[in-house]
Amino acid sequence: MNQIKTRKLGRNDPCHCGSGRKYKDCHLRIEEEWRSQQLRLRNAQDQLLQRILAMASTADATDLQNAFDRYWQQRYQFAQLAELNQRESYGADRFMVWFAFDYRQTDGKTLVERLAAQAAESDLSPLERQLLPTWVDVRLRPYRVEKLHPNAGASLRDLLHDEAVPLADSHASLRLELNEVIVGHLVPVDTPLGQTTPNYYLAGPAAHLTPDTAEPIQTFANLHLEALRRERPEAGWLDLLRERSEIFSHFVLMLPTDKPDPDRIQRFIEETRQRLLGA
Asked: How many CB atoms are closer than 10 A to CB 133?
């Protein structure tokens, strides 16, 4: 987590910036405003996500059915959607977030992209309008938990781009375990004072996988990217995520629920290699 300062300063202490002025006469007001803006942005995040999921729940029934079949690979019937939070660890909620952020509707846009295109004519708040453009490329992807910050979030590693991602979601971090893999949607919200990298928060629930799945899910993703590049040599990770992010749900579905099974994972990887690349 990014920190503004390493210890709590009193109002009359020298400011941490080294100016020689008292904290109350220097950075205190700036940081109080920053903390207030952070809170407003987090509230806007909650409101915007609720708005997006409400759109998803009233979407075209044909789109929902088609998306459901893609996401669950015919394992369940659409009529079973309400049961999946219990059967698949918040499976219904995870699907609806994927449907909103990842699934392209009949007009070729995701629900998030559609809302962003209509933002000027909508009743979005100014802060929701500020957040929305940064969410249009958010897709389902895997992360590894590298470090936990008690009551303050976690440090994650994007397993596709091998980049550090600061998770500032303190509530979500209470459900994380060190080195586990999570498959979910992270949305940028607020940016720490003096920093350029935003803090991220989970948009809805994520799938939690054991640490031994990190390397296999990377191999699985690379196979799909290689297959896409046979069709489009210039394709990158964002292209794959825009077109086929449901593959990470398929990986989760393959995993045993009782105990780790490395042989099963290896067979799945080899079957995927044969199906996609014929080798």
From this structure: 11
Kindly state the tokens that stand for 57: 């729940």
Radius of gyration over alpha carbons of the chain, in Å? 21
Residue 169 · residue 153 · CB < 8 Å? yes
Q: Write out pLDDT tens, residues 173-199.
A: 788 999 999 999 999 998 877 778 899
Which residues partner with 200 through β-bridges?
167, 188
- Indicate the pTM of the whole model: 0.89
Whether the CA torsion 48, 200, 245, 148 is positive or negative: it is negative
CB 190 within 8 A of CB 199: yes
Distance CA 83, CA 95 (A): 12
Joined together, the tokens standing for residue 96 give 């609806």
Other beta carbons less than 10 A from residue 257's beta carbon: 6
Question: How far apart, in whole angstroms, are the C-alpha atoms of residue 106 and residue 84?
Answer: 25
d(CA 77, CA 219): 30
Among 118, 117, 131, 120, smallest CA distance to 48 is for 131
Enumerate the β-bridge partners of residue 188: 200
Q: pLDDT tens across 25-43, in order?
A: 887 787 777 788 888 999 9
- d(C-alpha 113, C-alpha 136), whole Å: 5
Neighbours of 45 (CB within 10 A): 21
- Alpha carbon of residue 26 to chain centroid: 37
